[in-house]
Amino acid sequence: MSTSVIPPNRAKAALRDGAFLMGTMVAEIRQPSIMQLLANAGFDFVVIDNEHGAFTVESIADLSRMARLVGMTPIVRVPDLAYPYLAQSLDGGAQGIMLPRVTHPDQVRTALDIMKYPPMGHRGCALARGHTNFRGGPVAATMDAANEASMILVQIETLEAMQHLDAIASIPNVDALFVGPNDLSIAMGLPGQMDAPPVVEAIEQVMAACARHGVAAAIQANDMGYGTRWVEKGMQILSYGSEAALLVSAASAVVNNLRGVRAAQV
Questions:
Q1: Catalytic residue among 52, 131, 164, 213
Q2: What is the pLDDT of residues 12-67, one digit of tens each?
Q3: Which domains occur in the chain, in start order?
Q4: What are residue 157's DSSP bridge partners?
Q5: 214-240: string of b/e by CB count within 10 Å (b at 16+)?
Q6: Is 164 assigned a catalytic role?
Q7: pTM of this prediction exceeds 0.90
Q8: Distances (CA, A) of 141 to 118, 137, 147
């Protein structure tokens, strides 16, 4: 059993074993118990969406620690490529960063430089915080363990990213290329047409680049049919909807079904 004060990253370990990972976005609910509910549903990871969601450093830390405690890997989608967004999320307990709006490989290198401790990067070191479960440990060994555990998912959602696919996928320590199909369709001049042949072809190009460079291919799906099609094509990571969307979908199904029963009786 590992004696490191860095909690294991279950999703990263599963990827190494070739496992398929299912997750969802947390877009609105800041109560940590949401993580217990999502873990009960069987998700492997959660993406705390701080690009579009209203989350503070404190709520990210609370959500991240609860996710780890119930066996899910917490990943934070940062609003921008800046040291505080990445480093404070990781210090608070996140185990991964999702980097949006990437247009050039240098952005990914900068993100990894922020995320990783020396000698791999230049992240400042503070132990006995959320990311170590408030325990201290040998500095060098703890930094090495943290570097090994942290992961990055690079979003592919711009034309520029598509032009640099192989350069991005070949950067050491990139764990996954994560397609944002809606934004990619917009960038391609086909807003919302995620099944349009040019968009499908672009996503398949992302998957091919992942296969060439040994990184995982990932995608966001907000529709069961859409998600099913990409899983059948070989996507290794799927993020489905969000906690808010799942709540509305399940609640709507109950309401509509029971209203239909009542209407049939009248």
A1: 52
A2: 999 999 999 999 999 999 999 999 999 999 999 999 999 999 999 999 999 999 99
A3: 10-265 (3.20.20.60)
A4: none
A5: ebbbbbbbbeeebbeebbeeebbbbbb
A6: no
A7: yes
A8: 11, 8, 10
